[in-house]
Design brief:
Elements: H1 3-16, E1 38-41, E2 46-47, H2 53-70, E3 73-75, H3 95-100, E4 105-114, E5 117-126, E6 131-141, H4 145-161, E7 171-175, E8 182-186, E9 194-197, E10 203-208, E11 214-219, E12 226-231, E13 236-241, E14 248-252, E15 258-264, E16 269-275, E17 282-283, E18 291-296, E19 302-307, E20 314-319, E21 325-327, E22 335-340, E23 347-353, E24 356-362, E25 370-371, E26 379-384, E27 390-398, E28 400-407, E29 414-415, E30 423-428
Parallel strand pairs: 1-3, 1-4, 2-4
Antiparallel strand pairs: 4-5, 5-6, 7-8, 7-30, 8-9, 10-11, 11-12, 12-13, 14-15, 15-16, 16-17, 18-19, 19-20, 20-21, 22-23, 23-24, 24-25, 26-27, 27-28, 28-29
Amino acid sequence: MSFARKILFALLLSIFFLPGTSRGIVYIEVDSPQLRLYNLAFPAVRPLGPPNPKVAKELEEILERDLTIAHLFYLLPRESFPQGGTFVTPWGIDYPAWKETGAEFLLSVGYEARGGFLSLRFHLFDCVQGRPIGAKRYRGRLANLRPMVHRLMDDMLQMLTGQRGFFSSKIAFISDSSGLKEIYMVDPDGGKWQPLVKNGSINISPSWSPDGKRLLFTCFTRRNPDLYEFHLPTGRVRLLSGRPGPNAAASYSPDGRRIALMMRGREGTDIFLMPAKGGPPKRITHSPASETSPTWSPDGRKIAFVSDRTGSPQIYVKDLRTGKSSRITFVGSYNCSPAWSPKGNWIAYSGRWEGRFRIFLVRPDGSDLRLITQGPGNHEDPSWAPDGRHIVFSSNARGGYDLYVTTTEGGGPWRITSGKGNETEPAWSPLLGR
């Protein structure tokens, strides 16, 4: 093949497989009440250069874990696949043969590991309609295999659902494995633990900024629960609020300009707002009760919070424009830890039910209450993934507290930590590294 023909061939291939090949088709409606699992054929990854069994094994393990947690697919057994079904190009796909296995989609992944670098390529096919959906390639350092695979998964999910995946994000949490409460972060599949805040003190209540570059937390370094901000790119920590009493349960507004937090009021604790750059706080609740755990609506116009003004902890929503607060939980004697979905359609919370805490969903107006977790142990501290469908929470179902991931339909749950101590207070970041 001449050089000119090679260039033309490569150009045609890149055009044919640019994201958007599906022309805006949504294959999986993730917000549909009829959402189900789709049959996916995922053959063994294929080397595009010299085989590297170690790299291939790690690729497959991460991809299969991501596909499982995505909770959109049933992975068909490979023994049912047509012989030679490890294609990485769109030519030669025997669609009827794949369809006969029950496959609705086919994911083919190729890799090349050479000189400390990794190239990945994936092709996605619609086995029912007999046509390609799209493809993409990636190149980076071999040390970045894990984030490359997560990005592949996010792009694949966007091709199928029209909504970007959530695997290029992180989950911050508290671990007491060292004997102190320290802040770590982990991938959504449970891989790549990283320490964030280890200062020899007690740290609680991590919360991400909208850009994913900063993390709020409360620390007792000065023998008072003070509010700090950790800057991830530099590791710099700065004190935001050191008023006597609690400066805790803080969260950034969606535009990142304000922070809602719990502080000492005149009698109990109240919700305050303060500038994210620092400055005097403004009290927005005025009750003799204890009020805590503020969480913002995605449009920044409302805040959900917990108050025991009626005698037991319940969840309320406050309209910041009108100043009006409305109670939205009426089932259960102890409801706490609200988390507003990034889509705005749900508030997740932990509520006591039949003697144990469970994760519930409720609409912001208090309607359509749903129980989404069951089983042993307590289920606490829900936090939303960027996709507005997955939720991480902490549970002591196996003794010590670990982190688990579920979905709004109650999928899983999948345990993503199993440390020596307790892992609690998870906080899911926005998408990172884009």
